[in-house]
Structures are given as structure tokens and as C-alpha cells.
Amino acid sequence: MEILGIGMSELVFIIIIALIVLGPKDMQKAGKTIGKWLRSVVTSDGWKAFQQTSRELRTLPNKLMRDANEELNKIGGEININASDPARSGYRSINNPPRSKPNPPTAPEKREPTIPPPAESDLPKDDAEPHA
User: Fold this and answer.
1) Is 112 contained in some domain?
2) Helices marked H in the chain
3) Cα(15)–Cα(22) distance, rounded to whole angstroms?
């Protein structure tokens, strides 16, 4: 059992030191003073805010996991809806074949390569005069 991070053996040691230093009469006054101070701390608004924040921090990982799981379920549901209705999505599944038969693929046209005629500037010039 721990109180404010102090174990039982440390608490007994502190009480023994306080009894030696303060004596039995002053120990009662010190106990009352400490009790009043602890009560004022525990009933204060700051302590309540501290407790609430501490509780929220302890539950934060669980809350984040729950939110992430809800988001994944939502996205998974949308994916399942789209997969079950091919008209709504561009994807087809094995279980949902297309409603109409697709056109068979056509063979590409075979074209012979064409060579353009040479330009007049590329032709060799003949020094001889033309025959008439």
C-alpha cells in the first residue's frame, strides 16, 4: 500500500522521527494541522481538476483505440458496400461479375511503315544538262 508514493515502511519511519522531534504533545497539534491541510487540499477545486485530468489521462489510450476502431469499421463498411455494388464502384469482384458482357478485345491494326519521299534539297545535283 502506498500513500502519495510513500510505502508503509517509509511512513512508519517518518512517524517515529516526528515523535522523537516533536514529542507526544506537539505530535497531536501537528497531526491536526496536517489533517486540516490535507482536507482543504482534497476538497479544493484544484484537486478535483487534478483527479479528473489524471482519470482522463489513464483512459486516453483506451479512448483513442476505441475511436480508431470505430473509424476503421466505418471505412470497412463503406468498402464492403462499394464492393457489393459494382455499379457504385469502378471495381469488380469475383463474386459480383459484370452485368453486361464486355466487348471482345480487338487486334491492333498492322501498318506498314511508310518512308516519306526525299525533299528536293536532299537530292544530289547533276552537273550535266538535261537531255532534250
Assistant:
1) no
2) 8-42, 45-84
3) 10
Any idea which residue has 489510450 for its cell?
61
Provide the grid cell at 80: 464492403
Structural domains of the chain, count? 2
- Residue 132 forms part of a structural domain: no
Q: For residues 19 and 48, what is the distance between their CA atoms, to the nearest angstrom?
A: 32
Show Cβ contacts of residue 83 under 8 Å, excluding neighbours closer than 6 positions.
Answer: 89, 91, 93, 96
pTM over 0.85? The answer is no
Q: Which domain holds residue 36?
A: 1-43
Confidence of residue 36 (pLDDT cuts 50, 70, 90): very high
| pLDDT attached to residue 1 | 56
